[in-house]
Amino acid sequence: MFKKGVGYLLRDAIFWYLYFALFRAIFLIYNYAKIKEISFSEIFSTFYHALYLDTSMVCYILSITLLLTTIAFITGNNIFFTLNKWYVGTLISLLTLIYIAELEIHKEWGIKINAKALSYLQQPDEILNTVRPVFLFAGLAIVAVVVFIFMKAYNRFCKKEIISKKSFLQPVLLLVSTVPVLFIGIRGGFQQIPIQVSEAYFSKHNILNLASVNTGWNLINSVIENNKVLSGNPFIFYPMEQAKNTVEQIHKTDKDSTLMILNTTRPNIVLVILESWSATMIEGMGGFKGMSPHFDKLIQTGVVFDSIYASGNLSDQGMAAIFAAFPAQPYTSIITQPAKYIHLPAFNLQLKDAGYFTSYMFGGQLSYGNIKAYMYYNNFDRIQEEIDFAPHIPRAKLGVHDEYIYQRLIEDLKNDKTPFFAGVFTISTHSPYDIPDRTKYFVFNSYEDDYANAFYYADKCIGKFIDEAQKQKWFDNTLFVFIADHSHGTPKGIDRNYAEYRRIPFLLWGNVIKDEYKGLRIKKIGSQIDLAATLLKQLNMDAKKFPWSKNLLNYYCPQFAYYENTDGFGWIRPDGYYVYSHERKDIFIEKFYNPTYKDSLIKEGKSYLQILFQQYTDF
Question: Would you list the DSSP string of 222-284?
Answer without folding.
Answer: HHHHHHHTTTS-S---S-HHHHHHHHHHHH--S---B---BS-SS-EEEEEEETT--GGG-GG
